């Protein structure tokens, strides 16, 4: 058979899943979109366990040209070879090895190799150090015009006689290699890709030549997120040298939050993401198990809390003096933010300062507002300036003051203050240098990350899960290290010990607890293998059976440690390694011989599979997209033995109440969850920390009661596996679109209405007063409504006897009911009704301006109250219209600052103390209202007066009376001065994405 004659009869034996069909359909579109002669790039993101290998093989078949598949390791390499068997028809007489190979001697239609084998350098063995020496030698040869061998001799001489200088110079080249810069520069300088290929090992060059000569034109990069630095540059040049026509990238975790230069290496090779399937799609498609995300809070132990408080004390004492408007610090900020004098005496334009130093500018305005200094009109206000000063804001201003005021002063007091600032900043994780402040992992971060209180939280979680699952529990506790490296900071002596936060501390806690010891836990790390003493003999026996069955040369020995509660297992033999330890321990977990495995992220993260796992406890500090996504993927593999398996994924967060940086662990939780989807209590699948609990999005601080109440809710949620499973609605169709919503809370439970706006509730009050809706006193209410409508006051009507007879004969029940209705629905509105009115105002304004379809109806505006009382609003429409609506509503609920137009919101005066009759009267006839706040016209509607007027008409219809004001006018400036950046309703909000 020829090189491409296999593809017509290669066909997947089973139906593709819905999400796989979506990928393949999009691929067909890309083929049609690609012009002849242009390279085809197809970059796919799909979660672990979604069948990317199957999709990749199908893509290679459809391209009908020999392919090279590149993988990060031999395990994944083997999966490609194995899965191809699913494409060969029964009784075809064709063996898989005729079509696919992982060997290097003879190319096939599909060639599966590793990144490593394709990028081994010639003169560096397999070490970056030797490769760096090679680049260094070339640099010396070029600049000093010497022979290459002489340059190498010079490096070796320096290495033996002056190791300090050798390491210093070498680090420049190793860094360049890791970032791929040296390789790219070499290829760019010569303009010849052969120059870079020549750096590779002879066997690698021979292999690449064979593949090129065989006609390989398609390259599929599996787990392509590894293509970041050295590999990315090497592969880019290999592709060009081979004349590759089709480039496909498959990954679950693109490096979206890496440094710009790394991300650029990645996207230069693979292009932007063409199609993304989020994890929920694969869950609903039935290939992955459903899951829910949980968080357990704890507070630092007493000794830890004292340490954290002491770290903050210096800084607080420092800042207190800076809050004085008469202080030298305040005068300095005024000069930098308001006066902005340049060297020639002229004033620097605000827009130029803001463009050059946006964070500093925001911090300066926040500070000046805090100390009561008026902000002049030439300063453009932004949303970020409305909040409270954060510790980062203070650091920015203090940095500028220290470097540009104190450090340039000859006064002794200024030198002392500079030293005090430097020390105070250091304890909070800021290092003051001549180039400015740089951050580091501070002692505060380490104490919160590795607090011993997290061990108690782990035990509480496992106990609760045991009560729910019984013998079915399979739990993994994952840490960053076996032993914490917290002691690298000497200041933590007597606060944290070397075991805090490490896997070793977890397993010791488990085996010293009588209930948890029954799980027979095992700890496996890159260094150690420990098992519960009750399991030790069984572990050795089962391991021998497993090794013999697989023909492995492994022998184990055991010794008791930790007072006999644990046994340390050591192995020897040709096949003994960490991989075999993990594989065997995982098999025990699958069989239930152990029900708990403790390990590090390096071993139990990417590539580890345990389909039985139903409880994951994440104690890791890593918050990158790749690490979080990979770890979350461990617990959601389908398990035929648990047909209704739902995984509980737990984070443990240590929170120090009342401290500025006491929420650092919570911030890390926010960063983790903003990158992936999970199910909410109402069944929506949402991205961000709100899917854990909606209250987390708006928490500023927590006390012990709040923490206890939150943990109780989480434990209750953990018990609801069956209902949460049903809420996923597995098998239900999905459209794979992301929609944007606004979520917000308000400090005020009720907002007084502008009774000058006639609403449905006003009509109901009038109609019910004139009918029999309010039982008892209905006739009185009807006459009362008539009197009010005629313009007479209630006292006057009574004085003339118009209602006296009927009034005194009636019961008070109807009046009371009518008054209550008026107070709750006509004179005021709760947050849900406020959201409804603002949303419908915006909906009709956008529709009238042509920004959203006229086919949309009011019912497409979805408004709901979440379990914590917060409000979620979204427009059920195509993504672009939905996003525009959410963005505009977010702007409408923001303070006025630098927008073009604004409208007032009136409130009826003093509604709470009214008598029943006056409450009814106020609801039936508008009374005196006052302006309490101004709301900005959303940007898209504020681009011109006509659109802004259209918004004003809807505002008057749904929310409040009032005229449109141009904020750039003199009147607008007066309004901004009085109401600017004012959040009168105490609204806290966020834009949140959900998937369907």
In short:
This protein is an alpha/beta fold. The chain is built from 40 helices and 29 strands.
- State the CATH class of one domain: Alpha Beta
Largest sheet: 9 strands, mixed
- Number of continuous helical runs: 40
Architecture of one domain in CATH?
3-Layer(aba) Sandwich
N/C terminus separation? 46 Å
Total beta-strand segments: 29
Within the largest sheet, what's the order of strands? 8-18-17-11-16-12-13-15-14
**Shape from CA axes?**
globular
Q: Radius of gyration over alpha carbons?
A: 34 Å
Helix and strand content put the structural class at alpha/beta
Features:
996 residues, alpha/beta, Rossmann fold, nine-stranded mixed β-sheet, seven-stranded parallel β-sheet
Overview of this structure, please?
With 996 residues, this protein is of the alpha/beta class. Among the domains are: 1-90 and 101-120 and 201-277, 3-Layer(aba) Sandwich (Rossmann fold), CATH 3.40.50; 123-199, no CATH class; 302-445, no CATH class; 760-826, no CATH class; 828-995, no CATH class. Helix content is 46%, strand content 15%. It has 40 helices and 29 strands. The strands form 6 sheets. Strands 8-18-17-11-16-12-13-15-14 form a 9-stranded mixed β-sheet, sandwiched between helices. The protein has a 7-stranded parallel β-sheet with strand order 3-4-2-5-6-1-7. It has a 6-stranded antiparallel β-sheet with strand order 19-20-29-21-25-24, covered by helices on one side. The protein is globular. Residues 187-192, 772-781 and 786-811 have low confidence and may be disordered.
């Amino acid at each position: 058979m020829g090189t491409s004659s296999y593809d017509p009869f290669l066909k997947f034996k089973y139906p593709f899943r819905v999400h796989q069909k979506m990928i393949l359909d999009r691929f067909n579109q890309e083929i049609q979109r690609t012009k002849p002669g242009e390279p085809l790039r197809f970059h796919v993101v799909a979660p672990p366990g979604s069948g990317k290998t199957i999709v990749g093989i199908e893509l290679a078949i459809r391209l009908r040209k020999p392919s090279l598949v590149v993988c990060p390791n031999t395990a994944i390499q083997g999966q490609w070879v194995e899965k191809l068997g699913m494409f060969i028809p029964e009784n075809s007489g064709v063996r898989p090895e005729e079509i696919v190979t992982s060997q290097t001697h003879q190319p096939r239609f599909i060639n599966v190799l590793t990144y490593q084998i394709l990028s081994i350098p010639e003169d560096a063995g397999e070490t970056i150090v030797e490769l760096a020496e090679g680049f260094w030698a070339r640099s010396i040869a070029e600049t000093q015009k010497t022979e290459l061998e002489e340059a190498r001799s010079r490096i070796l001489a320096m290495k033996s006689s002056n190791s300090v200088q050798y390491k210093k110079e070498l680090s420049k080249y190793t860094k360049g290699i890791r970032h791929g810069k040296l390789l790219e520069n070499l290829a760019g300088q010569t303009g010849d890709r052969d120059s870079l290929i020549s750096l590779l090992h002879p066997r690698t060059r021979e292999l690449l030549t064979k593949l090129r000569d065989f006609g390989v034109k398609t390259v599929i990069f599996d787990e392509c997120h590894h293509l970041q630095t050295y590999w990315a540059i090497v592969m880019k040049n290999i592709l060009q040298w081979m004349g590759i026509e089709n480039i496909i990238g498959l990954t679950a975790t693109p490096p979206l939050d890496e440094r710009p230069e790394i991300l650029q290496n990645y996207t230069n090779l693979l292009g932007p993401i063409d199609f993304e399937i989020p994890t929920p799609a694969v869950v609903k498609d039935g290939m992955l198990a459903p899951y829910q995300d949980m968080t357990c809070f704890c507070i630092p132990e007493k000794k830890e809390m004292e340490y954290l408080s002491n770290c903050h004390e210096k800084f607080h004492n420092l800042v207190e003096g800076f809050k004085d408007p008469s202080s030298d610090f305040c005068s300095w900020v005024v000069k930098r933010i308001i006066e902005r004098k340049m060297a020639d005496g002229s004033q620097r334009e605000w827009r130029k300062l803001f463009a050059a130093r946006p964070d500093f500018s925001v911090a300066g305005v926040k500070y000046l507002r805090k100390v009561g200094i008026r902000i002049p009109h030439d300063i453009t206000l932004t949303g970020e300036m409305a909040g409270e000063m954060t510790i980062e804001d203070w650091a920015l201003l203090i940095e500028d003051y220290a470097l540009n005021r104190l450090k340039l002063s000859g006064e002794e007091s200024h030198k002392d203050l500079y030293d005090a600032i430097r020390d105070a900043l250091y304890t909070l994780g800021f290092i003051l240098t001549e180039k400015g402040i740089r951050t580091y992992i501070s002692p505060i971060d380490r104490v919160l990350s590795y607090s011993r209180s997290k061990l108690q939280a782990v035990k509480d979680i496992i106990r609760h899960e045991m009560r729910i699952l019984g013998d079915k529990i399979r739990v993994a506790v994952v840490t960053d290290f076996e032993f914490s490296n917290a002691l690298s900071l000497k200041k933590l002596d007597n606060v944290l010990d070397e075991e805090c936060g490490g896997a070793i501390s977890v397993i010791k806690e488990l085996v010293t607890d009588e209930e948890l010891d029954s799980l027979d836990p095992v700890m496996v790390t890159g260094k150690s293998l420990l098992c519960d003493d009750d399991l030790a003999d069984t572990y050795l026996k089962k391991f021998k059976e497993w090794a013999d069955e697989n023909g492995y040369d492994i022998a184990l020995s055991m010794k008791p440690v930790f007072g006999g509660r644990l046994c340390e297992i050591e192995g020897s033999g040709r096949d003994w390694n960490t991989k075999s330890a993990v594989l065997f321990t995982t098999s025990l977990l699958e069989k239930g011989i152990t029900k708990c495995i403790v390990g590090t992220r390096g071993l139990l993260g990417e590539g580890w599979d345990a389909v039985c796992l139903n409880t994951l406890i994440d104690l890791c500090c890593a918050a990158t997209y790749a690490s979080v996504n990979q770890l979350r993927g461990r617990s959601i593999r389908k398990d035929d033995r648990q047909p209704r398996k739902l995984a509980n994924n737990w984070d443990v967060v240590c929170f120090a109440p009342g401290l500025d940086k006491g929420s650092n662990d919570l911030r890390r939780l926010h960063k983790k969850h903003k990158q992936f989807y999970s199910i909410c209590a109402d069944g929506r699948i949402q991205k961000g920390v709100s899917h854990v609990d909606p209250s987390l999005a708006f928490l500023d601080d927590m006390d012990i009661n709040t923490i206890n109440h939150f943990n109780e809710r989480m434990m209750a949620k953990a018990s609801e596996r069956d209902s949460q499973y049903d809420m996923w609605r597995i098998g239900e169709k999905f459209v794979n679109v992301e929609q944007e919503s606004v979520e917000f809370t308000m400090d005020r439970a009720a907002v007084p209405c502008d009774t000058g706006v006639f609403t449905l509730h006003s009509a109901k009050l009038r109609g019910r007063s004139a009918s029999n809706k309010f039982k008892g006193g209905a006739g009185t209410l009807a006459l009362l409504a008539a009197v009010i409508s005629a313009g007479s006051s209630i006292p006057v009507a009574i004085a003339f006897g118009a209602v006296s007879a009927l009034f005194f004969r009636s019961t008070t029940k109807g009046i009371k009911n009518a008054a209550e209705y008026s107070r709750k629905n006509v004179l005021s509105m709760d947050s849900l009704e406020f959201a409804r009115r603002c949303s419908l105002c915006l909906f009709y304004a956008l529709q009238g301006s042509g920004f959203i379809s006229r086919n949309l109806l009011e019912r497409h505006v979805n408004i709901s109250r979440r379990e914590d009382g917060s409000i979620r609003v979204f427009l059920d429409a195509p993504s672009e219209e939905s996003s525009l609506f959410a963005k505009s509503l977010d702007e409408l609920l923001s303070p006025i600052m630098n927008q073009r137009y604004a409208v007032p919101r009136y409130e009826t005066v003093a509604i709470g103390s009214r008598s029943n009759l006056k409450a009814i009267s106020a609801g039936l006839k508008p009374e005196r209202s006052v302006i309490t706040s101004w709301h900005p016209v959303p940007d898209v509607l504020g681009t011109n007066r006509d659109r802004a007027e259209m918004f004003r008409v809807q505002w008057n219809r749904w929310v409040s009376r009032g005229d449109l004001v141009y904020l750039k006018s003199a009147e607008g400036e007066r309004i901004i001065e009085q109401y600017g950046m004012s959040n009168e309703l105490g609204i806290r909000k966020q834009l949140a994405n959900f998937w369907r």
